[in-house]
């Protein structure tokens, strides 16, 4: 475990990773030929933070139904914050029914009915329900504009600087809604890491039934690619066919984004080839397990003098298959750690650098709550600091 301090490092360890800078495409294995059909493509290994492939990752484009990932994330956050209750029911307004019933992808909400948050999330994330998104937005925030304001606020919190959302469902809105592959990868990562239970609950259902109508999940890799368990497809004539997907094998998770493909069949082939390439042509060395102590930081004004830090997911170093390299790791602290500290609060970043300069990073969080010190603890800590 790394010691406390503003910047701590350890000597190189034998592992495997080499390539270009993390912000650009690695000079690694040749990607699948089918990927030529995706004008926009990005793949990230979440365990190491390494970008395995990047093409036009910061180019803004219309996300279509990929917008619904932001809708879901906003609802997940509202549930955690207590501003939305799991048992809350959302009324289907007459005007919403008339405008959205059967319009594009739909869960076929019934006029005059009310629908629970759980069912709406299932409809939105399993069958891409446009009508369900509008019902959710109106019920959660009072109106669609009020809800999209919340979506944009959450996007800013995540640092999604190339994104703006004008609708909760991605219906064409003359370009007011846009995003980038990098922002979508950031969003997918936040969903998976901040809301793991909700991710498992809402993204992996093979089908969804509402109003006696059963529809299958449109995810092109689930059920056919080992470890695939989410996230979302999108399509409009203007945006083409897009997909944000993820799979996990042996504790190693990959997130990929593709955009602008010409057809649903092309998207399916590209997605399957791309995710397979990420697992088959790259290998990962585990550095730390999930929640395994990585570092320890000194606390100011805490009931205890230090707190341990860990990652919420296993930490890996990723490299092209059969290509080992030396790796340096270091911890960069975000600043002085002051009590009280909340469990899961981000305190530092683990920096990973290979011998040829590939850099990646993984957030480190506090492993437990630490309260502010009382007068006795402050006196004791002060005394210990004099003799230690």
Overview of the molecule:
With 388 residues, this protein is of the alpha+beta class. It folds into 2 domains: 7-21 and 287-387, Peptidoglycan synthesis regulatory factor (PBP3), Domain 2; 33-280, 3-Layer(aba) Sandwich (Beta-lactamase). Helix content is 29%, strand content 30%. The chain contains 9 helices and 18 strands. The strands form 5 sheets. The protein has a 7-stranded mixed β-sheet with strand order 1-15-17-18-13-12-16, with no helix packed on it. The chain has a 5-stranded antiparallel β-sheet with strand order 3-2-10-9-8, sandwiched between helices. It has a two-stranded antiparallel sheet with strand order 4-5. Helix 1 (67-81) packs parallel to helix 6 (181-194). 47% of the residues are buried.
Features:
388 residues, alpha+beta, Peptidoglycan synthesis regulatory factor (PBP3), Domain 2, Beta-lactamase, 2 domains, 7-stranded mixed beta sheet, 5-stranded antiparallel beta sheet, 9 helices, 18 strands, cell shape
Short account of what is shown:
Helix 4 packs across helix 5 (144-157).
Overall helicity: 25-40%
* CATH architecture heading of the largest domain: 3-Layer(aba) Sandwich
SS-derived structural category: alpha+beta
Strands side by side in the biggest sheet: 1-15-17-18-13-12-16
Show the helix and strand layout:
Blueprint: E1 7-15, E2 40-45, E3 50-55, H1 67-81, E4 89-91, H2 94-100, E5 114-116, H3 117-127, H4 130-141, H5 144-157, H6 181-194, H7 196-203, E6 207-210, E7 213-216, E8 228-236, E9 240-249, E10 252-261, H8 264-280, E11 282-288, E12 295-300, E13 306-310, E14 315-320, E15 325-333, E16 337-338, E17 346-354, E18 359-366, H9 375-387
Parallel strand pairs: 12-16
Antiparallel strand pairs: 1-15, 2-3, 2-10, 4-5, 6-7, 8-9, 9-10, 11-14, 12-13, 13-18, 15-17, 17-18
